[in-house]
Amino acid sequence: MRRLFSGFAKPDLAIDFGTANTRVVTAGGGVAFDEPTLCCFTKGAQNGHPVATGAAAQVMRERTTGKLQIVRPLNRGVLADISAARHFLAHAVQSSVGQRRLRSFRAIIGVPADATKAERGALLTAARDAGLGAVDLLPEPLVAARGAGLPVDKSQGSMIVECGAGTTEAAILSLGGICAFASRRGGGDALDAAIADHLHFQHKFLIGATTAERIKRELVGLRSEETLQQAEIIIKGRSLVTRLPQVISLPVQDLLPVVARHTDGITKLVVDLLGRLSPELSRDIHDHGIVLTGGSAAIDLVKSALVRATGLHVAVAPDAPHCVARGLQQVLSA
Ligand SMILES: Nc1ncnc2c1ncn2[C@@H]1O[C@H](COP(=O)(O)OP(=O)(O)OP(=O)(O)O)[C@@H](O)[C@H]1O
Ligand SMILES: [Mg+2]
After folding, report:
1. Ligand nearest to C-alpha 322
2. Rounded to an integer, what distance in angstroms lies between the CA atom of residue 327 and that of residue 250?
3. What whole-number distance in Å separates Cα of residue 220 and Cα of residue 46?
4. Domain boundary among 208, 230, 258
5. Ligand 2 centroid to 294 CA: how many Å?
6. Any residues with CB less than 8 A from the CB of 279 and at least 6 apart, and which?
7. Domain hosting residue 199, numbered range
8. Does the Cβ of 187 fall within 6 Å of ligand 1?
9. What would the pLDDT profile of 262-302 be if each residue is shown by its tens digit?
């Protein structure tokens, strides 16, 4: 494998710092940390130590008292709160390496391939403030493609669509690098928000982010056309009409247009990228198809929409949510 990191000899650990989930991989030990990217702070004290971090903060989400505030360090794949990011990274790495001094660790961190200089700079600052030693950044689609087992070092085009919570990145890879790339700052989270908005505006019914994600998973888990036509989804939340807690039952059909708008966005991204390829790369992608990675690759309707729009073979990578972490592991052991 071509050497991917530039700043130092050999990294000790690697971080898939995702909008929804963070995974830390150590050189000898595999995935040592895999938790939601969340911090809970006392309100007005965001610079102080968090009350809870990761999985412990997840269970508090939308159930906190007025004194507490849940913060997501990342939004749409890039840093949104530098102080939360610093605390979160320190927690994630310290949980992975024990009580050893962080300053001695050299780390690589995955970032969206189109992260701006300012976004990269903010992440490097947060990592340094978290106490890490030297840090280098690697483009996530390239790492995910390695993790999915694509032959990225060969003189052959491979195509990946990394479907995360905050970003969707489509890339063509060959000779160890990215030949062409397209992305949207939006992923599974945006679909959750669209489901919550639909219930709010069309049904005057309020649900939280956790419920919206649960509905999405239930909805996209219904695979056969027959179930999609007939199934109903039970939703618990608060009615804006009665202002009381309530349970409603909605036909899946009612929510399918919301999912279709999400899949249309990804299809457009992929079709635009394919339209920019050289004839040789087009030939490679025609022969080898498209591989989907990331947690949102589980949305079967994305795969079927891509097959319909492109006529290409589309496959979901095995253990798709962990492809970036697996790719980082390969970089560490190269
Ligand atoms: N079975 C499933 N069905 C539908 N969506 C799923 C499923 N499992 C996970 N997801 C979605 O995948 C997303 C999380 O994926 P992932 O962990 O790859 O994101 P991330 O790395 O945190 O985000 P990003 O890379 O965009 O910053 C969430 O939006 C989650 O709801
Ligand atoms: Mg990710």
Report:
1. 1
2. 40
3. 36
4. 258
5. 6
6. none
7. 189-258
8. yes
9. 999 999 999 999 999 999 999 999 999 999 999 999 998 89
